[in-house]
Amino acid sequence: MVSAPGSALRPGPLDRRLCALPKTATSLYLIAVIAGLVQLATHVGIAMVLARAFSQLLRDHRVENGSATLMALGLLYGSALVAQLVMTRTLGVLSRRAMATLNLEVLTYFASGVELSRERAGGLAIAMTSGLAPLEGYFSKYLPALVQSVLTPLVLLSVVVALDPLAALVLLVGLLALPFLTAKVAAHANASAAKQWRALYALSARYSELLHGLATLRLLNATRRARREVDDATTNYATTTMTTLRLAFQSSLTAEFTSGVAVGLTAMIVGFHLMAGSVAAASAFTILLIAAEVYAPLRRTSAEFHNAAGGRAAAATLLALLEQELPEPLTSVTFDENSATVSFRQTSVALPNQRHTTPLTGSATRGQVLVIAGDSGTGKTTLLHQIARSLGSAVAVAPQHIDLFQASVADNLVLDGRKVPSSVRDAACRATGFDQVVAQLAQGFATPLGDGGVMLSTGEQRKLGLTRVLLADRPVIVLDEPTANLDEASIAHLRAELPTALANCVVLMSAHSDHTVLPATFTHDLGRQP
Q1: Do residues 400 and 460 both lie within one domain?
Q2: Are 395 and 389 within 8 A, CB to CB?
Q3: Are residues 511 and 403 in the same domain?
Q4: Which residue segment(s) compose the domain that 139 sits in?
Q5: CATH number of the CATH domain containing 457
Q6: 225 and 344 within one domain
Q7: Which residue in 392, 383, 380, 379 sits closest to 346, CA to CA?
Q8: Distance from C-alpha of 234 to C-alpha of 200, rounded to nearest angstrom
Q9: Kindly report the CA angle at 223 between 219 and 228, in degrees rounded to 5?
């Protein structure tokens, strides 16, 4: 995790990884640093001009060259405003670029063929959307405050040393004490923020999973139990959120109290020196105006550290995902485009508990059907999906869980946006029996599906998935339990139509037995679950 303000402001591995996300961002960081230095210089200039004006006002009851003083203040304030705008805009570009890069890397990772459960997909969805929202504050507020908390005290203390060394010493002691006093609270806040994020991840994941299975829960009269699970997850998230807020308040209170005491002591010392005549009035006012600014970046760093904690936790989850190694394509699986033949050479995949599937050796060509049989848990789906990943663009897959997207029926059938003739589409629908589903929809193929549209039953989704692979126009078709959730009439229809529809394809199919929707040319039995 990223270092807290109380850990000597040392950037952690997550900070370095996040700062490296925006590509070719060196110039942007440089612009932001320069803008910060300009802003710092204007603060010192404003303090000096105001101090000089106040001292003249107290001594002479008037300000010499008042118009020049006002012009100088206007110029300094204008420069500070421009520097702030430049910094905000630059860091805004950095934050948007960083979040876009991270999301793109995660989507590219998923596009490589990683399988996600519905529960995990729900958690990652919240991580890639609202979970990353606090990262904008991380780049636009926390990072500049972190840099300024190092530069600003050094510059301002050097000014105070020249005016009153004892006052500078008091400010320095406060600076050294502040990280020490906030270290423990900040460490607890960091851990609490990570716990809060895990609670939100679990809540989102569980909610997504329950929504997908709501129809099943209603049939089993288990909605009350599901509601209790969501309530418990919500309560856990609320509890961790309040703990995080309490720790953030404690950390901010400690920072404000420490800086307030240090500034008060500094003001007292400067007042004594002013009465003793060892410090000029202009110098005294300059120190008083500067003293609060010495601690301002540290206080902002502490506050923004807590504000951005959720975004850092979400980013850490996604970066940890990207660091996981993807399963390597199976080198024992090859596809000959000329003969449309898939060959296997001792093909096996790893399963939990250090088990492996039974090695598969042989080949299947156009018009043949290879059935992977076996009990549940023997690795049928794992083996099929690993084979599909290894075949790349030559394969179309009908998985067990069919995803519906927020689009029309026609767009859900052809996901790559190709223009498919209506005659081809209608023929594929007749082969799978999906034409009967479309006939019952008010708008036919224009009916919206997914969120905000019609939700199909699991059996209707299965027919849609089978129609998808027929319209994908790929030489190799993978069917994972194609008859699941279908009634006997639908299965009989598939047995009559699919052999003709898939006559020019290599079909790889999983099933619990030899009694399949397509006649098996070869059967590879993975056996019974141990």
Answers
A1: yes
A2: no
A3: yes
A4: 13-322
A5: 3.40.50.300
A6: no
A7: 383
A8: 8
A9: 160
Question: Structure pTM?
Answer: 0.58
Written as six digits, the tokens of 89 are 């805009």
Report yes or no on 51 lying in a domain. Answer: yes
- pLDDT string in tens for the chain (530-residue length): 334 444 434 556 777 777 777 765 677 777 877 887 888 788 788 878 787 777 777 776 676 777 787 888 888 888 888 888 888 888 778 778 877 888 788 777 776 666 665 556 666 777 777 667 777 777 777 777 777 777 778 888 888 888 888 888 888 887 777 777 766 666 676 677 777 767 777 777 666 666 666 666 666 666 777 777 777 777 877 887 787 777 777 777 777 787 788 888 888 888 888 788 787 877 888 888 778 777 777 777 777 776 777 777 777 777 777 776 666 777 888 888 888 888 989 888 877 777 788 888 888 898 888 888 887 777 888 888 888 888 888 888 888 888 788 888 888 888 887 888 889 999 999 999 999 988 988 888 888 887 656 678 888 888 999 999 999 888 999 998 888 878 888 889 988 998 898 888 999 988 876 567 888 888 888 876 65
Structural domain includes residue 5 = no
Number of domains in the chain: 2
Domain boundary residue, one of 290, 322, 354: 322
> Could you tell me the CA-to-CA distances from 96 to 19, 22, 436 in Å, in that order?
12, 9, 46
Burial of 177: CB neighbours in 10 Å, binned 0-12, 13-18, 19+: middle
Domain match, 340 and 316 both: no
Interhelix angle for 165-212 vs 118-128, to 10°?
A: 140
Burial of 496 from C-beta contacts in 10 A (0-12 / 13-18 / 19+): exposed
Say whether 171 sits in a helix, a strand or coil.
Answer: helix
347 and 300 both lie in a single domain: no
Contacts 24+ apart (CB under 8 A), 411-418: 412/449, 412/450, 412/464, 412/468, 413/445, 413/464, 413/467, 413/468, 413/471, 414/468, 414/471, 415/468
Distance CA 503, CA 360 (A): 23
387 part of a folded domain: yes
Two tokens at 223?
Answer: 């909605």
Identify whether the C-beta of residue 398 lies closer than 8 Å to the C-beta of residue 468: yes
* Burial label, 172 (beta-carbon count in 10 A; 0-12, 13-18, 19+): middle
Inside any domain, residue 229: yes
- DSSP type of residue 448: B
